[in-house]
Write a structure and sequence with these properties.
Layout: H1 3-25, E1 31-49, E2 52-69, E3 72-83, E4 93-106, E5 110-121, E6 124-136, E7 142-151, E8 168-176, E9 182-193, E10 198-203, E11 209-214, E12 219-232, E13 235-244, E14 249-259, E15 265-274, E16 292-303, E17 307-317, E18 322-331, E19 335-344, E20 348-357, E21 365-377, E22 385-399, E23 402-412, E24 419-434
Antiparallel strand pairs: 1-2, 1-24, 2-3, 3-4, 4-5, 5-6, 6-7, 7-8, 8-9, 9-12, 10-11, 12-13, 13-14, 14-15, 15-16, 16-17, 17-18, 18-19, 19-20, 20-21, 21-22, 22-23, 23-24
Length: 438
């Protein structure tokens, strides 16, 4: 048994002991539990050859759980999936999206979380198997967040990760809001991910094939960032700059302005310089993919406090090419309609979509409908392709704690002439006050 395998039993024991201590220390306080159980099935056809198709059904079981007592809480989201036409060599697919404990206001100015947890801290975002702690002043004018641990698998499956020295993430963020109407932030992230080794055939010095084990270097991402925001009664300004330390270049630069001339109108303008986010040592890092500069403007108008009309337009500049993107639409609480288009280097696109839902019988039944039509060309010399898609569904809530979702999906394009898919799910909610330690 290697070192990190020995850590898990000890960490689990310490975790259980801590939970018992915290929950037992204030037995008079009840535990608030919120749980959600989702059982669902998704079915589709897969075409192996022309005119030959097989039907597949995949089942999912998800559990989301939150238990809190005072300043201590537990949070989890687990999912299991399996093909219902089970094969002998198939194993269920398990995913742990998050599973962590959180202790707030330790000595009033410290928060601590540990386990498999998500983090969003400026330039850093993702999921780690580790810990996150935040130091803050009593009025939250200053906040300093630190996080670190093992980099979780990309698919968030429940499996052993590699040696920590080759598979880790750590970083932090400092936020200051002490100056009225201003927000300042600095952040840093270093993430490394182990890539599995493999056996392959290579030529030796005499050009004879020989078996060789390839142990690739881990991929690396290292960024620093600074951001600033400023608010006025009828306007706001924000700016952000991300620097790629491994490549020694600007990763992202952004300026944004939003202005409200009246209660009904909103004007926005944004500039973004964006470079491809490619991990160091990855295969795609060998390609020279240039950055792009984008300038976008938009207008929003609110009609009768329930309906919003919006228009967006963007100009995108590449090294030797340019592209245009535009969107317009209308939306309210029952329906939305939009048109999206683009031209130039990014390809030609014209897309129209309609979505709607309406509650019946005191929200016991909510039918939903979505339809879209898309016409596109990948480049000037390519043929025009068309895609039509539709989705029809129903959400039924016979009880406050129970809902049933059913949806049918249909797609018609060059590849799939008549692709039909079905989804059905049952959601069950529980919210209870527990008294486990009385």
């Amino acid at each position: 048994m290697n070192a990190h395998n020995k850590i898990f039993p000890r960490a689990s024991l310490a975790f259980c002991v801590l939970i018992l201590i915290v929950f037992s220390s204030s037995a008079a306080i009840a535990q608030l539990m919120n749980a959600r159980f989702i059982s669902s099935v998704y079915g589709w056809k897969q075409y192996d050859t022309v005119g030959t198709a097989k039907k597949f059904w995949r089942g999912y079981q998800s559990v989301m759980l939150d238990v809190a007592q005072g300043n201590f809480s537990l949070h989890g989201h687990f999912q299991g999936a399996v093909m219902l036409q089970k094969k002998l060599d198939e194993l269920p697919d398990y995913r742990l999206y998050y599973g962590y404990a959180k202790w707030k206001n330790i000595v009033d100015v410290v928060d601590l979380s540990f386990g498999r947890l998500p983090f969003f801290a400026g330039v850093g975002s993702g999921t780690i198997d580790g810990a996150l702690t935040t130091f803050h002043t009593t009025n939250n004018d200053f906040r300093f967040t630190l996080y670190g641990g093992a980099t979780t698998p990309v698919d968030l499956t429940v499996k052993r990760w590699g040696p920590l020295k080759r598979n880790f993430t750590f970083g932090g963020q400092f936020l200051a809001t002490a100056v009225e109407d201003w927000r300042f932030g600095l952040s840093y992230m270093n993430r490394q991910r182990e890539r599995p080794g493999y056996w392959t055939l290579r030529a030796d010095s005499l050009f004879n094939p020989t078996t060789l084990y390839v142990d690739p270097e881990q991929t690396k991402e290292q960024y620093s960032s600074g951001d600033i925001s400023y608010w006025l009664p009828n306007a706001s300004f924000r700016a952000r700059y991300d620097y790629n330390i491994d490549y020694s270049k600007t990763q992202r630069a952004q300026l944004g302005l939003k202005y409200y001339p009246s209660e009904c109108w909103a004007l926005s303008a944004d500039y973004i310089h964006r470079a491809p986010r490619l991990p160091f040592n990855s295969f795609f890092a060998v390609f020279n993919i240039p950055a792009s500069d984008e300038l976008e403007g938009g207008v929003d108008y609110t009609l009768m406090a329930t309906t919003r009309l919006f228009v967006r337009g963007a100009f995108v500049k590449y090294v030797d090419e340019k592209s245009f993107r535009y969107t317009l639409g209308v939306a309210n609480e029952f329906a939305s309609a939009s048109y999206r288009g683009s031209s130039g280097y990014a390809g030609e696109l014209n897309a129209v979509s309609l979505k709607g839902s309406y509650a019946l019988c005191n929200r016991m039944f909510v039918p939903t409908l979505g339809v879209s039509y898309t016409s596109y060309k990948l480049n000037e010399s390519a043929e025009t392709e068309n895609t039509v898609a539709a989705a029809l569904g129903l959400i039924a809530r016979p009880l406050q704690m129970l809902s049933i979702d059913v949806q049918g999906q249909w797609l018609n394009n060059k590849v799939y002439k008549n692709d039909v898919r079905l989804y059905a799910g049952v959601n069950f909610w529980i919210s209870e006050q527990l008294n486990l330690f009385e």
